[in-house]
Write a structure and sequence with these properties.
Blueprint (H helix, E strand, L loop, with lengths): L4 E4 L9 E4 L21 H9 L7 H11 L4 E4 L6 H13 L11 E4 L3 H14 L7 E4 L5 H10 L3 E4 L1 H9 L10 E4 L2 H6 L3 H10 L5 E6 L4 H10 L4 E4 L10 E7 L4 H14 L5 E4 L3 H13 L4 E4 L5 H12 L5 E4 L14 E4 L6 H8 L9 E7 L4 H11 L5 E3 L5 H4 L11 H7 L36 H4 L41 H9 L1
Parallel strand pairs: 3-8, 3-9, 4-6, 4-7, 5-6, 7-8, 10-15, 10-16, 11-13, 11-14, 12-13, 14-15
Antiparallel strand pairs: 1-2, 2-9
């Protein structure tokens, strides 16, 4: 095995940029002389890149594309929004330009954690490969199996899939992975968070041992490090930024909010109005909260739409297209939209909920401040969120500017103890038991008239009917029998009898009829 060589930028301008290269070093990414035509791409690819409006490669592209073209395994660690998708799509198109696909045997395989990321990679292949005759198939959930089977039967050069749907096709005998030449595992840390690592391990074992593996991740936890050691051979490690760091073009701010979700919704609406938001993404931790926040914004006159994993794939696609086109300015989403979605014009990010994992915060705010634009990120923090905030600041190595939300209405700042009339007491009690009986100020209070107990009308005592026995005639009453004197034997003296004879005797129960019949038969 060739030794790894660690190269650091001697200028000190990008101290976090480190590249560990197993072979000869590539040119530093900060060098202004690096251009796309120096990376070994064909004329058709260079033309497609120029049509897309790109002139200078990003650091991950400048360092990664030559190594992929050499056939090396690669580990790419870069923050979100640094051009990771083009760093493997461009050399893959160059490699696939020589050869032809066979039925049900794709030549390259790209694994993505979510449907949105898979669809975005497919769009990149269509954009960069428009001058090359390459076939592609997209295997994601929410789409008919029949259309996907037809594409696989014709043979595809590029197969982009999520792990679950890929294993479904393989289990049905519609797919073979023995012809995969290049395997790409994108957003590996997100795969770990979503529980896809066992599926990824199974898929990798189905591919040939001689494959070329490209491994991309924004962070490198121990579980991901174990995968790289298991499936990659002498990989080239390219790290273009310190893991879990945000872009310098993002202005971050923490807004402390008193109370719970009922006050966060009011704070969110105030921030949207104060900052004159044109388009924004609001992130929530839970899917049910996504729907609640979206309906709250719609109720107060904001054009908002929800996006989470429980929605149908066609609805999710239409929502994203409408958000990109500007028809929906506010997108309320779960972490399904936090990784890799290329929406360059997002101006504001609102973390309605503080993420449970610190890495998720970096990916969320990475949706803004892309391509050199200035972005703004707000995080709404309550009293119970301080531990998660401390973990985020520790991971990023910096403190975030804080601001307190003041001037909330009286009914929000000092909630009453009435129970929420819409039945959310159970949901709130899970988050914070103290908020179980707090009302929702968005629902107007309805005055309920007290019920006055009316006295029951009773008849006067003298008018009450007499008992039946009192109303019966004297002759109809049954005469009482005189009590007979107890007869005692002559010479009887109780004081002379022994005590055991005075004890009550318990007679055995009389035999039942069945027992008597059984005895007669026997």
């Amino acid at each position: 095995m060739e030794p790894n060589i660690s190269i650091e930028n001697p200028t000190g301008t990008d101290a976090g940029i480190v590249a560990e290269i197993a072979a000869e070093p590539v040119a530093p990414a900060s060098s202004p002389e690096v251009r796309f035509d120096e990376l070994g791409l064909s004329a058709g690819l260079l033309r497609a890149v120029a049509d897309s409006g790109y002139t200078t490669p990003t650091p991950i592209q400048a360092r990664g594309i030559p190594e992929v073209l050499r056939g090396k395994d690669l580990i790419g660690i870069a923050q979100t929004g640094t051009g990771k998708t083009a760093s493997f799509t461009l050399p893959m198109i160059e490699i696939l330009s020589r050869g032809r696909a066979k039925a049900r045997m794709p030549r390259t395989l790209i694994l993505e954690p979510t449907r949105e990321l898979a669809a975005q990679v497919a769009e990149s292949f269509e954009r960069y490969g428009k001058y090359n005759k390459l076939s592609m198939a997209l295997l994601i959930g929410g789409v008919s199996f029949d259309e996907q089977d037809k594409k696989l039967d014709r043979g595809v050069d590029v197969l982009i899939a999520t792990p679950g749907r890929l294993l479904d096709h393989f289990g049905r005998g519609k797919l073979m992975l023995t012809g995969v030449q290049v395997l790409v595992i994108d957003e590996a840390d997100r795969m770990l968070d979503m529980g896809f690592i066992p599926d990824v391990e199974r898929i990798v074992k189905l591919t040939p041992f001689t494959r070329q593996t490209l491994f991309y991740s924004a962070t490198m936890p121990p579980e991901i490090q174990r995968l790289t050691e298991q499936f990659l051979q002498a990989p080239v490690r390219i790290e273009v930024s310190r893991p879990a760091t945000a872009a310098t073009t993002i202005v971050q701010q923490i807004v402390t909010v008193p109370g719970g979700d009922w006050s966060k919704r009011e704070t969110l609406r105030r921030l949207i109005r104060e900052n004159d938001v044109k388009n924004a993404i609001v992130f929530c931790n839970r899917k049910r909260d996504v729907d609640v926040v979206a309906k709250s914004l719609q109720k107060h006159g904001f054009a908002a739409a929800p996006l989470h994993g429980d929605l149908d794939q066609s609805v999710r696609t239409r929502t994203l297209d409408a958000f990109r086109a500007g028809e929906i300015p506010i997108l309320v989403a779960s972490d399904v939209a936090a990784r890799g979605l290329d929406i360059p014009a997002v101006a504001h990010i609102f973390n309605f909920d503080v993420p449970f994992q610190p890495d998720d915060y970096v990916h969320r705010i990475g949706r803004t401040g892309r391509a050199g634009r200035i972005g703004h990120a707000f995080m709404l923090v309550g009293a119970r969120d301080e531990k998660c905030v401390a973990a985020i600041e520790k991971l990023m190595g910096q403190s975030i500017v804080r601001r307190a939300m003041e001037g909330l209405p009286e009914e929000i700042a000092q909630p009453k103890t009435a129970r929420d009339s819409r039945g959310r007491g159970r949901e709130r009690s899970r988050a914070n038991p103290r908020e179980r009986h707090r009302p929702d100020p968005e629902r107007p209070m309805v005055a309920i008239e007290p019920v006055i107990a009316r006295p029951v009308a009773q008849a006067p005592v003298e008018q009450r009917p007499a008992p039946v026995a009192a109303r019966m005639p004297a002759q109809a009453k049954r005469p009482e029998r005189p009590k007979q004197a107890e007869s005692k034997p002559a010479g009887y003296d109780a004081s002379q009898l022994p005590a055991f004879l005075l004890r009550p005797i318990k007679l055995p129960p009389k035999p039942t009829k069945r027992l008597a019949i059984a005895e007669t038969e026997s």
